[in-house]
Amino acid sequence: MAGSKNVLEFTREDDFVEYYLFPIIDTIEKKEQEVILRSILLEANKVIEKYTKDYLWHKDEFKLAPRTSIYNSLIHIDGKEEYLPPHLYGVSHYGDNVEDEWFMVFILQQLTKEIKGLIARAYDVDGEFLLIEAANVLPRWASPETCENRVYIYNGCIHLVPPTSDENPTISVMEALSEIRSHSAETIASTEIQTAIQEKLKGYPEKTKDNLHRAKAYLPVSIAAILKKKPNLIAPAAQAFCNRDTVDMKACRAMKYFPPEDRVMTRVTFTKCLYAMLTHSKYMPDRRTGWNLPSRSATVYKAHLLGVKIACGFEILASQAKPSSDIESDKGWHAYLNSLKDKGYFKHLLEHSVEYNNLLNKAKEYYSNHRDTMHYSPAIGRDILELLRSRDLNMEELKNEENSLPEDDDDSWLDISPEELDKMLQERYGQKKTFNLNNNADATSFTEKVSKFLNHVSEIEGAEFPDNSVESSPIRPPRRNGKVSFTESARADAKSSNKINFDANNFSCTVQNILNFVIPEDDSWDLDSDDTMSDYENDEYIKNQSYEEGKSKMEAYMEQMDRELASTTIGQSFEKKQEESFEDIESFTPVDIDVNALKNILESYKSQMGEAGPSSTMLGPMGVHLDPKGQMDLE
């Protein structure tokens, strides 16, 4: 584990994305590195400003800072610390709006396109998250463990540095950067990977405008003026209101900074995520505070209630502008402390022990010195109070604009019907072909799909589904010559370590025969084998029977059982084949195995009442999807 200082520095919430930009810097002199980095930072900020000028961040903005090689910039590989070359660094929290994360990836892509020599890297709590979008088209060696420090953006393209050895898949950032710069043609990712990731970035930066929602809100005049000057403050205000606690509610009842007496109707710009958060956060203000809402049927009711919520958010932020000197009353400290505990900072020490208290005091000191740079910060509240005291807030202009405001944007996107959801899923994952369960041909297709799955490849890491490409399976380990034989590898292991020789093909065949009540036609099924029939070695009847006699008797027994079942209620419940008939028994027709299998699967699925269960768990990954209306989709 890293030292306590690094744990204190790198403790953050899980909604973060961390990004690096590595330029070509050959000098080892710190001052020269700083000059070069600051020059590149100025150029990078121009590119960032071009794409983010009117962008409304949900939580943290995209921001870079220079780091020289002397700076304590490190990452960890297998518990070892690796110092990075000089670079530009940033970390941002995106909260509930994952679109911010992908917009940051787009910015990184543009930076590598527009500034020569830059190589970008980005990862989040999931690691190399860029590859998640391309999970179905990754090379077979790729896995969360083997891809660490191997994914970069260079000249606007994704680069994936392949391993050179199966035994040691780890690589340092320095080695990866060197490999990309010297062998970029070998490290550039496949066209399928590029396309999959580019699909997430398609439409930027134009589509950022589609993520905005504008609506009227009846606000205290001072807040309307503040938002006119700094519209991005709506994000922390909305989050402060939606994440309020009992302490924050006391501030909302007092409304010391933004009383409701003097209000104005204004138009506020939100992200769709922020607007949805505020709309669905239930709150009814205390009338004693001065809030006088119109009736629910009034056309302005929505604007009034939205204004109350925004005003409360600003009030909460302003009340946090002067943090208490008592750190124990700071809820940001408690969130920070919980993160430290989750990351093992206290090393399982007994609480209140001497060593525990020493680490706790170091954490308090670090938090007090860096409170303003952390996500939970009173700095925003101080900015709001500074704007509140500013004299250049033109309140008269707001009063004049009140009567000429445009209509609200359509918010019907808040409600999604099942049909619209299906359409969205189909656009994202492709069209499905629908079959009616009453069609016997479709039942045959269904059982063929299940049988194909049962007969397909399975390994220790899990089943490989027939529709997935073996070459592109992201969960398969590296193989020599493109194949792995379980039988051959088991034999090799048996010679070297006395392990069991397991023949997967014979085992699969045996299980399939048992399920199908089939007696093999060849001699591989030895009824007298000590290995397979040891439980019956003392049975005199079995000893006296030959293989052919046993087979003949079994077939006769199964046929007789079918005939007797045909006249029972159980037999009558089975679906029968209509095209065949038996002359000796007029009422007897053979059971349609395909239709009955499908019928039973459907009954099992219906009994799940829409919840997870064996049917959906088994059939879903195979591309078979059932719905409660008696339809199934085969992808």
TrEMBL record:
Q: Where is this region: Disordered?
A: 609-635
Signal peptide interval: none
Q: Name one Pfam family in it.
A: SGT1
Q: Where is the composition biased (Basic and acidic residues)?
A: 626-635
Q: Which cellular component terms (GO) are annotated to the entry?
A: nucleus
UniProt superkingdom: Eukaryota
Checking InterPro entries in the record gives: Ecd
Which PANTHER family does its entry note?
Answer: PROTEIN ECDYSONELESS HOMOLOG, SGT1 PROTEIN HSGT1 SUPPRESSOR OF GCR2
Protein name, as recorded: Ecdysoneless
